[in-house]
Amino acid sequence: MKNLFLIGGPMGVGKSTAGQILKKRLPHSVFLDGDWCWDAHPFVVNTATKHMVMENICFLLKNFLACPAYENIIFCWVMHEQKIIDELLANLPVDSCRATAFSLLCREAELRSRLQKDVDAGLRSDDIIERSIARLPLYKELATIKIDTSGMNAEAAADTLLLHIK
Fold first, then answer.
1. In what side-by-side order are the strands of the sheet with 72-76?
2. Please, which of 18, 33, 97, 127 could form a disulfide with 2 given CB 3.0 to 4.6 Å?
3. Number of separate helices (H) and strands (E) present in the chain
4. How many Cα atoms occupy the beta-carbon half-sphere of 23 within 13 Å?
């Protein structure tokens, strides 16, 4: 049976890095970052682009699930609302796989520090910090396995994910 791992969390918590590590550690794996499905300039968030990104994500995940080469499909994205997770799962053939949803979290001060390093390195704009912090409490309401990555590097976060997967 195939595995679909949905890894959510606020921007800067380490979803992409942990997901890439999982891809290397799990057999026959493929990784998709939801941000790749609408990497645009200028970045526009409206009804049309939200609909488009969901279609893009579902198209790719359906193809990964259908492809016999892949056993483990790892997807990461912010997914800060239950309706996002529910919509994804409603549009995927999850009856033929084991789907598990995670939320990676960390303490606010640590999230600020992680994001500030990215801002200082020119990888993110400075408005990312407050936007990410504002979403942090929303994850408490989700039907996901919560993993606190405070004090962990990406390898340790991936190790913790693996404990829940096996």
1. 29-33, 72-76, 2-8, 97-105, 145-148
2. 97
3. 6, 5
4. 16
Q: For residue 100, count other CB atoms closer than 10 A to its CB.
A: 15
Task: Collect all residues with Cβ–Cβ distance below 8 Å to 32 and sequence separation of at least 6.
Answer: 57, 60, 61, 64, 73, 74, 75, 76
Q: Which residues lie below 8 Å from residue 45, measured CB to CB, with a gap of 6+?
A: none
Q: 114 with 14: CB under 8 angstroms?
A: yes
Q: Give, for all 166 residues of the chain, the pLDDT tens digit.
A: 899 999 999 999 999 999 999 999 999 999 999 999 988 888 898 999 999 999 999 999 999 999 999 999 999 999 999 999 999 999 999 998 999 999 999 999 999 999 999 999 999 999 999 999 999 999 999 999 999 999 999 999 999 999 998 6
Q: Distance between CA atoms of 97 and 81, rounded to whole angstroms?
A: 23
Q: What is the pTM of this model?
A: 0.94
